[in-house]
Design goal:
The strands form six sheets. Strands 3-2-1-6-5-4 form a six-stranded antiparallel β-sheet, sandwiched between helices. The chain is an alpha+beta fold. Helix 2 (46-61) runs antiparallel to helix 5, helix 18 (584-592) packs across helix 20 (625-633) and helix 22 crosses helix 24 (703-713). The protein is 47% helix and 16% strand.
Amino acid sequence: MVKNIRPNLPQRPAETEAHLNPREILDDRLAIFQEVTTALNSTLDPGELLDQILDASIRYTGATTGSVALLSADGKVLQIARARGLGTDVENEVRLKVGEGVTGWVAENKQALNVPDVKEDHRYVMVKKHIRSEMAVPMILGKRVIGVISVDSSKIDNFSDEDLRILSFVGTQAAQILQKAQAYNELRVKNDQDETLVEISQALGSALDFEELFKQVGMILENRCGMFRNFLVLKNPDTGELGIKLAHGMTEEEIARGRYTIGEGITGTVVESGEPFGVQDIRTEPRFLDKTGSTNESEQIISFLAVPINLEGKTIGVLGAIKPFPGESQFDSDMSLLQIISSTISQAVKIHFKVISDRESLIQENLLLKDQLKTRYQYKNLVGNSKAMQKVFTLIGSVAKRNSTVLIRGESGTGKELIAHAIHFNSSRDDKPFIKVNCAAIPENLLETELFGHKKGAFTNAVQDRAGKFVQADGGTIFLDEIGDMSPLLQVKILRVLQEREVEIVGGNETVNVDVRIIAATHRNLEEMVQTGDFREDLYYRLNVVPIEVPALRDRQEDMPTLIQHFVDRVRKENDLKTLRLAPESVRLLIQYDWPGNVRQLENVIERATILCDGDLIRPIDFPEPIYEAGQLLPVPNLPDNSTIRPEDHLPHIISSAFEQETLTGNIWNEVTHRVERDLIEKALKEVKGVRLKAAEVLGIHRNTLRKKIEELGIKKKGDS
């Protein structure tokens, strides 16, 4: 970079010129030309260049004050770019139209002007009372005026014609070099913008969290562009309200105050119009509301820049910034840069909205799932009318209200996990986690870390910390299925959790306190295991606080019709089947079978038969071979040949299934009555070999009524006569 050389021009009072001979004047002029030219070529910074132009002009002419005013882009207004001795009020507030005042006249006429006494010249506009004489020269580039150099004095007739000629030369030289400096500065600004955009692109690629991303963008804008406060306003998609989402250089209180409506203030105007809005001096813009209160009083001119964030053709927010006014050219560059950045981060905003939407959807899905689980696992909805099951339901209702440890015992497939679910979802912990662990399905060396978690480096492949199931279940319930298969070492650790309510993480020395209700289950005979030393006696008594014995299916034969119909209705509903029936011999076969796999086996058999059956009727041949063959060896029970399930057992399930729909449509009466009518008519027609007249007599209704019902219900006419 070229070193900044300040010229040391002689300050020559105008009255000494009369005593100089022409040769001295020429030598003095050449020396001044050389020093001014050297000074003007010593820097490529437009601001420094203007300073040197003005300082040289004042020193040479013996002026008291002076200024350099540049023409606006539209060529209509002169704005003071540099001044000496005029005061900040004049520098910041005085703007002259072309043709107005001495400076405006020079710009309009492209001629230099020396005013010996400003009070005698009507063109002079009073800016300071002490000024008595003024000299101004145009800065001409080709045929275009780009600015005016003006010097003032408190003395009348302070400037000579020679001063005017010298200053005119300075003005011409300054215009040419200023153009080069501005061209260089534009390249420098463009390079700075490119580097800024590269940094922001790198931030977009590295930051996954939206808040962290904007924090990095905000710091880049401050460090590289001087935007000491910048912010992101987003529109609430539900309410339409505008609010500052994230900000750099603002306090939480200031951010909270940043709320706007569409069309309100500069921010609301940008969203309403979809166009950028820049204010060079916020004191002059009535639409700048300063709701945040973050623009403290300052002697500097403060600018406000706001650009829209557009996404899929809609304005969804505003990217804004506050900084000291950098000059018109730099201000325009800053506005362009912000527009590029806003389009760059719009995709990040889109992803942010998508994350919020997905998170809300997930929360809603979780709430819906919890509601569904609560409904599904209400113990009153569990199937079974036998005395054994009623006893189980009574125990569930009692123990669910407490935090006692529960031990559920029963053969495999009896529904121990369903009982555990019912206890949890009918307890005060129903909105907390329900974590289940099958102790028999996980190898012993993995079960410990599964339950208690591990620290990074605790063993090979332990590349990070992991929370165990007990910690995950904190506040809720953990269900330890098949606890009888747990090793003695882990039994000790489980005992400690029950006693101390704390877990020790594998590979770590610290313990973690947990508030967890333990429900355990097993199909094993724990009493025998205690006697043989395979199960700790102290743990047995800790677990067996409230034991629940779930009966085997063969011990609750009276529940079979209810269970069969329950699973048939569920499979029909899940597979969107209009009808699904079991042949009478199929029902007899299911009731008589021993069911070593209990309820789980029964459910699987019915689901399998639904897939294999021809049409909507399940026959014995559709069952697995062991069940079918076992049925051939069993005596036929004393059941009516034309019976599937007893009406007194069947009707409650018709009603229950109507109320188990996800959405109650208000059509339950019709659904239930139509189904009952259909079953009655089909039954009657079968009894009388399809003769409608006889069927009407059996049912006790008129034959026209029967015919109408057959048509309404779509009953097949096969066998009618």
